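hey so i finally got around to running the thing on that chain from the lab meeting. sorry it took forever, my laptop kept dying and i had to restart like 3 times. anyway pasting the input first so we r on the same page abt which one it is
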Amino acid sequence: TPSTMIIRALNILGELEIGGSLVSAQEVAYLSVLNNMVDSWSVDELMIYATVQDSLTLSTGVVQYTIGPGGNVSTIRPVDIVQAIIRDTSNLDTELQLLDEVAYNRIVLKSSGNTYPSYLFYDKLLSVSGLSTLNYYPAPTANLSSYLYSNKVLQSFPLVTTSVNLPPGYLRALEFNLACEIAPGFVPIP
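ok and heres what got predicted. didnt touch it at all, straight out
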């Protein structure tokens, strides 16, 4: 649980005796530090332990889809898409080239048709509804399946009593890094 991670971090620092406990307000304060640390790890590709696959059916002539809770791809909004493929009705896969915003904006006519899209631009900018946008190019002239492989945000901990299932090595990393975060006089490097 986050409570045991917090207590272990404080034990590492010598700020709490082995077998000691915290009051609720202290646990809540340290939980906030732990969640902020894990949130910052989500943008570091080296800290992401799994790539998640999501799928989407592309409609003929449609080039733009939303991704995020309640979007065309209803999932946790990805931090980044690391690979995308198109699968046709014969189960043949074609990898898409991932474009950045500058390269995507250089495409003049975004609605031109081709059987398969060749490119994908993931616009991470959040809309008012909290969704991001997937932009395929060129527009498909047939219904196809798209498979997206992405890095998602790491799990946050809603309560100090939440049961946590972590991959090997993460418990120690969380405890020792939390100890650094809460160490007296520690100033994180921006």
